[in-house]
Amino acid sequence: LVRPQVIALDGPSAAGKGTLARRLASHYDLAHLDTGSLYRAVGRRILREGRDPKDATYAAETAANLQPVDLKDPELRSEATSQAASIVAAIPAVRANLLAWQREFAKAPPDGKQGVVLDGRDIGTVICPDADVKLFVTASPEARAERRFQELQAAGANPIRRAVLDEMASRDRRDSERATAPLLPADGAFVLDTSDLDADAVFDRVVAFIESKTRPRRA
Ligand code: CDP
Ligand code: CDP
């Protein structure tokens, strides 16, 4: 069996990272860490406390003191939290304070797993630069906004197409233009544009890529 030990998966919002990461984790029996949830948890706690996400000192402290319960906040996926997450994610000290935890997860996977898949923005570039497999999934802003729109509708919300696209563009811009760990494909990453691919097709192509590149490892 060919099984990678560390898969680094990056890409913009609604590129399909979470969907792909969960399938890869199940296929290769890996632990999965959605690193965006860490930034979301920091952003959400700051909003809940009525503080300003741009306050770098406070955001860094919040990241350093993040508690497991913060990762269970029901508002973690709200639009306000998404924007706050990308604001705190541009603060270098916030990133630094979340780094050790992510590396530790990759080094010592929970639940007796032999490997990990981490998804986010800087996994292949900063968190796990030695990953066996680096993937970068992307899609046009229109395709990604349409996916988010469909998700919101399916959840019973009444989204406005233009607003979904604008909010996504503002987060894309912040995540790509920040000085620290901007969204970028890692050197050697397999880059896949998923605009015209469904989740099954993406999974098949990525598995074919992994099989073509990984060699069986000695345990
Ligand atoms: O984690 P990320 O924000 O990158 O995306 P996601 O939450 O995994 O996927 C966003 C939405 O796109 C979900 O509703 C998926 O079912 C859908 N989708 C996908 O994941 N992959 C495709 N190739 C096409 C659609
Ligand atoms: O699901 P979606 O792709 O929309 O967002 P996410 O992966 O949950 O990430 C939320 C925000 O956290 C992003 O917009 C980034 O600003 C930040 N983030 C980051 O900077 N680095 C990561 N490794 C993961 C997320």
Would you write up a description of this structure?
The protein is of the alpha/beta class. 51% of the residues lie in helices and 11% in strands. It contains nine helices and five strands; from the N terminus they run βαβααααβαβααβα. It has a five-stranded parallel sheet, sandwiched between helices. Helix 1 crosses helix 9 (199-213), helix 3 runs parallel beside helix 5 (92-107) and helix 7 packs across helix 8 (161-177). Residues 13-14, 17, 35-36, 39-40, 82, 85-86, 89, 120-123, 171, 175 line the site of one cytidine-5'-diphosphate.
Helical stretch count?
9
Element-level helix/strand string? EHEHHHHEHEHHEH
Bound molecules: cytidine-5'-diphosphate
Going by helix content, strand content and strand pairing, the class is alpha/beta
Overall, the morphology is: globular
Radius of gyration: 17 Å
First-to-last CA distance: 11 Å
Low-confidence runs:
none
Helix content class? 40-55%
Percent of residues in beta strands?
5-15%
Main sheet specs:
5 strands, parallel
Q: How many strands appear in the DSSP assignment?
A: 5
- Please state how the strands of the largest beta sheet are arranged side by side: 2-3-1-4-5
Mean pLDDT rating = 95
